[in-house]
Design brief:
single chain, 77 residues, mainly alpha, 71% helix, 0% strand, elongated
């Protein structure tokens, strides 16, 4: 909700500045940070909602082997 509120405030300020013909300070940086924050929140929600996919992803990253998924491991003899 905080990121959405940030986007709403950004748009409102942008409209205000356009109406007053003023320059919005830091608009590109603010927009870039809002986009990064929304990506972080989206990824964290996706990883939380799909724990099996998260487990597979972490297994691949930690082992360095993209062919193993972590499920149904074969026994080493």
């Amino acid at each position: 909700m905080g990121v959405v509120a940030g986007f709403v405030l950004y748009v409102l300020e942008r409209r205000r500045c356009d109406a007053l013909a003023c320059r919005m300070a830091g608009s590109r940086l603010t927009l870039a940070l809002l986009i990064v924050a929304s990506l972080v929140v989206t990824v964290s929600i996706a990883l939380d909602r799909f724990p099996e996919a998260t487990s597979d992803l972490l297994t691949r990253v930690m082992s360095g082997d993209a062919s193993r998924t972590g499920h149904g491991r074969e026994q080493v003899r």
